[in-house]
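ESCALATION

Customer reports they have been waiting on this structure for their group meeting. Please prioritize. Original submission:
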Amino acid sequence: MQELTHYINGEHVKGTSGRFADVYNPATGELQAKTPLASVAEIENAVAIAAAAQPAWAAVNPQRRARVMMKFVDLLNRDMDKLAEALSREHGKTLPDAAGDVQRGLEVVEYCIGAPQLLKGDYTDSAGPGIDMYSMRQALGVTAGITPFNFPAMIPMWMFAPAIVCGNAFILKPSERDPSVPMMLAELMEEAGLPKGILQVVNGDKEAVDAIINNDIIQSIGFVGSTPIAEYIYGNGCAAGKRVQCFGGAKNHMIIMPDADLDQAADALLGAGYGAAGERCMAISVALPVGEETADRLIAKLAPRVEALKVGPYTSGNDVDFGPVITAAAKQNILNLVQSGVDAGAKLVVDGRDFSLQGYEDGFFVGAHLFDNVTTDMDIYQKEIFGPVLSTVRTQSYEEALKIAMDHEYGNGIAIYTRDGDTARDFANRINVGMVGINVPIPVPLAYHTFGGWKKSVFGDLNQHGPDAFKFYTRTKTVTARWPSGIKEGGEFSIPVME
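Update from on-call: job pushed to the front of the queue and completed.
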């Protein structure tokens, strides 16, 4: 069995804590590796190395830092297949989906190449008599990110690329369930020209998380994961005086209006609901058809599509629709929630509970499920399932559908399918959700916009990537300068004001 490492100061370093987490192949259920879980001392060592390396990196001009990102993009494209295969082996995603994971991270790196422009400050000459005023953006120092299992390439790059191009050092604690790709990314960053010690990968569990929170040198923390942990990190990180942005759970809805193209809507729900086995924070897990006729027609179109989905390992080829979920525990949690829906009276139109794949009986595969007649008091509606389960909540009007979506505690993403521009415009203006799709099922913004939800899906006032990332990973310093113009006057003892 392979023993994985940390990646510290440009080298693979064995763990010293004596504690390990199991890394499985989700398709076979086979234990394929163990990854070390860092102690407080190991976190402190990585932070000390980063702190020593960071000032010299911050002194490198933004254009040269951006050139490292340029080279990193080339290397990501060069190793795309290698990265996708490693990602699929530990996560279970299909190869095209794994490549998409890398690609969406790469796009943020491409945006970061614009750092020389994005880091420019403001300047005002003659703000007062002989006084000029200017601002500059400066790096925070050592920053950290705690990333989830479901996007082991994309989300780390969403964090470390802007942090590093701004002149910071970065400590990455990836998910212990699929840690190999983050370490591969760190190696590629150094091959691209990043100095050793600027990007370090430390594997760990709650002990490592708490060590990051409590370390006085670390200036900021980024997190993506469940809402309870997001609340924990945000509360404790802010109390420790750090800048913190935490992204939590989701329950994403799609409203289907009577005038919608139902074939288009059904296809969109298929990909958005079941892609990556539903293990996406932007997955659509609730369909809200408006009107009984719309609901009946939608279910009639969805059911055969869901039944025809091909579930299998990434090695079965690119025509597989989705693979296994990440762990046996995740599989059992999904099946428990499905059973709770049945027990609560929801209609299980497509039942995937008995799904089994010949030759992969020990894998963590979950069949596709489609529910109808779900009500908002059921656990399958209230909770984030994070599995291939789509719930249909029938509504009688647009206003009812809108209210249901707005009343949910999560507010990550939402979509509406309609041909009516007035409805779409009203929806976009009124909905209390951070990312909105109009005839777009998974409205993840491109890299030059920002990603972030509302309500209990986010903790912090700045989103990920786009312009917000450059605000989050820098501090603004404003300088007021006055140079004597030949006559030196005496001291002033009242507060200065502009005349």
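Sent to customer with the following note: The chain has a mean pLDDT of 96.
Escalation resolved.
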